[in-house]
Design a protein that fits this description.
- The complex is a heterodimer of chains A (201) and B (82).
- Chain A is of the alpha+beta class and 201 residues long.
- Chain A folds into two domains: 102 residues, PH-domain like; 60 residues.
- Chain A is elongated and about 90 Å long.
- The relative contact order of chain A is 0.12.
- Helix content of chain B is 59%, strand content 5%.
- Chain B is built from two helices and two strands; from the N terminus they run βααβ.
- In chain B, strands 1-2 form a two-stranded antiparallel sheet.
- In chain B, α1 runs antiparallel to α2.
- The longest helix of chain B has 24 residues.
- Chain B is elongated.
- Chain B starts with a strand and ends in a 9-residue tail after the last strand.
- The relative contact order of chain B is 0.19.
- Classes of the chains: A alpha+beta (201), B mainly alpha (82).
- At the A-B interface, α2 of A face α1 and α2 of B.
Chain lengths: 201, 82
């Protein structure tokens, strides 16, 4: 997982999210449908006998065409898998990373610090999503910034709850760090003032 | 009468295969480069390569007996009757 992002000091991976596997049934169904078409076409068109195929030139051409067709749908299917598998949302104890694979040659990566999370909204809509418990989580940030959307992810309500918890923890941690940094500075400033007061600064 | 050896049909096929190899390579590299260097990524890549090999092998099997160099007269192609 660390090859997808470079962790900051003390940063810990909480969870990573992909779309629910059920959404990949769509491309599988399309692939199977496309794979059956040549057989169906052969059965429908050549019911009276493959007259066209009696010529060697056309026979070879048709076989090469069918080969190209199957290779094309095979690579289309694999590209769909790559697109599905490389779309990932990573949640650490410090930030949210949204990685979107856009086709084969496009990829966008966006990050959001958990302290900037304003609100998180989760939604499950439809019969199948309700049955399989997957839906959308929208992470809302400041008004002028783009929201983060995790689409078709499993257990969206649990994810919303966990992100809110992590955001609260991160805010506390950041507040502690600020307080921790402020204290030595205050002490140093006080010391400096005291030295000045004593005529040594 | 115009005659052509069947090998000319392999030219578009070879061009397609060049594109296919390029996209296959891009797909497998994307999977490895962007975080699928794990069992799922390896299995998916293996299945894809194996599937491609099976399709090419079946094509080669079905065209194994073809004499690619002997010219075939094109005028003898019958009209399709549906």
């Amino acid at each position: 997982m660390h090859q997808l992002y470079t962790p900051h000091t003390g940063e810990k991976l909480e969870f990573s999210l992909r779309r629910h596997p059920i959404v990949f049934l769509g491309p599988i169904f399309i692939f199977l449908l496309l794979a059956v078409i040549p057989y169906a076409a052969r059965a429908v068109i050549f019911t009276d006998g493959p007259l066209v195929l009696t010529h060697p030139f056309l026979d070879i051409g048709l076989k090469l065409f069918v080969s190209i067709y199957y290779l094309a749908i095979w690579i289309f299917f694999f590209s769909q898998f790559t697109d599905y598998y490389l779309d990932i949302n990573i949640v650490t104890n410090d930030r949210i990373i949204d990685i979107n694979q856009k086709g084969l040659f496009g990829r966008s990566v966006a990050e959001l610090d958990l302290t900037r999370v304003q609100d998180v909204h989760s939604e499950i809509k439809g019969i199948i999503p309700t049955l399989l418990n997957y839906g959308t989580v929208e992470v809302q940030t400041a008004a002028n910034e783009e929201n983060f959307n995790f689409e078709q992810i499993p257990h969206p309500h649990k994810v919303r709850q966990r992100i809110l918890e992590l955001a609260a923890l991160d805010r506390k941690r950041e507040a502690r760090e600020i307080m921790g940094e402020a204290k030595p500075e205050d002490a140093a400033a006080a010391g400096h003032n005291e030295m000045k007061h004593q005529g040594l600064g | 009468m115009l005659s052509l050896p069947p090998i000319v049909l392999l030219i578009p096929y070879a061009l397609f295969m060049l594109g296919y190899l390029f996209f296959s390579f891009a797909n497998v590299i994307s999977l490895g480069k962007y975080g699928a260097r794990n069992a799922v990524g390896l299995l998916a890549s293996f299945i894809f390569i194996a599937g491609s090999a099976v399709i090419v092998f079946m094509t080669w099997q079905s065209l194994g007996a073809v004499d690619w160099m002997t010219p075939v007269p094109l005028a003898a192609i019958p009209a399709p009757s549906f």
